[in-house]
Write a structure and sequence with these properties.
Layout: E1 13-17, H1 18-31, E2 37-44, E3 48-55, E4 61-63, E5 66-68, E6 80-87, H2 96-100, E7 106-111, E8 119-122, E9 128-134
Parallel strand pairs: 1-3, 1-9, 6-7
Antiparallel strand pairs: 2-3, 2-6, 4-5, 7-8, 8-9
Domain JAB: 19-113
Keywords: Hydrolase, Metal-binding, Metalloprotease, Protease, Zinc
Protein name: Putative Mov34/MPN/PAD-1 family protein
């Protein structure tokens, strides 16, 4: 007889390097008052999404209330774990539009005034994930 063991639910979190976090902050400040978008590079483990690089998506478009890019323009060799984008309006919570266009394992959203404490991370369902900014991974 087979016995199925119930998997313990793991609280997932995001580990991001200081260099990647600073890149998100700088890119967002550069594009203000428009939204800015980046692709997150890294890897996914059972309990964490590890972000250690950023890619500027080719042919990205943005405005005061939107940002996006075509996934068909991306090279297949990018180890994509999600996206990061800014919300100039002040809230780092994902909108319905953000959730409908979710890509990867995590969505990082930074709100104005674009500092560490304004960074939020979310899963595909819009649940908040803990963020740890580290010097290196």
């Amino acid at each position: 007889m087979l016995v199925f063991k119930k998997r313990e639910k793991v609280q997932r979190h995001v580990i991001i390097t200081r260099q990647a976090a600073d890149g998100i902050i700088t890119w967002s400040k550069t594009h203000h008052p428009n939204e800015a978008i980046l692709i997150l590079q890294g890897r996914n483990t059972r309990d964490a999404v590890i972000v250690d690089g950023l890619v500027i998506p080719p042919f990205a478009q943005s405005g005061p209330f939107f940002s996006g890019f075509s996934v068909h323009d991306l090279p297949y060799t990018i180890p994509n774990v999600g996206t990061a984008h800014s919300h100039p309006g002040g809230s780092n919570r994902p909108s319905l539009e953000d959730l409908n266009h979710f890509s990867g394992y995590v969505s990082i959203i930074i709100s104005h005034p674009y500092e560490d404490e304004n960074i939020g991370a979310y899963d595909r369902s819009g649940n908040s994930l803990e963020i740890k900014i580290v010097d290196s991974v």
